[in-house]
Amino acid sequence: MGFEQYHEPAGELTAEVRTFARMITSLTEEAEAIGWYEQRISLEPDKEARAIMENAQHEEMKHFGMDLEFLLRKKPQWKKTLQGILFKPGDIVKNGDEAEEASE
Ligand SMILES: [Fe+2]
């Protein structure tokens, strides 16, 4: 168990910032797990094993979403930016540029 999520002395950080850092680390780990399962599933020849891994990957997606929602509730500007990008049709880069501008 490491403490790599802190880039500044943990004792100088507020409890709120330490929680935020832990949740960022958790979000990263959930994203990594989704990617790892994607690779395993693509190579697994056993149908039943693949189904179990797909189920596990789906759970990691839920964890990722909950972590992200927690973080967005703490960062209104981040939330506003993502509201202009996520679940929207159209050009992703254009939506991103417009969302960034709108959230400043
Ligand atoms: Fe998870």
TrEMBL record:
Keyword annotations of the record: Encapsulin nanocompartment, Iron, Iron storage, Metal-binding
Any one biological process term the GO annotation gives: intracellular iron ion homeostasis
Subcellular location as annotated: Encapsulin nanocompartment
Gene Ontology molecular-function annotations: metal ion binding
One cellular-component annotation, GO: encapsulin nanocompartment
Gene3D superfamilies registered for this protein in UniProt: 6.10.140.1960
Keyword Transport: no
InterPro entries according to UniProt: EncFtn-like, Ferritin-like_SF
Pfam families: EncFtn-like
Domain of life of the organism encoding this protein: Bacteria
Main location per the UniProt record: other
Record protein name field: Uncharacterized protein
Species classification: Bacteria, Bacillati, Armatimonadota, Fimbriimonadia, Fimbriimonadales
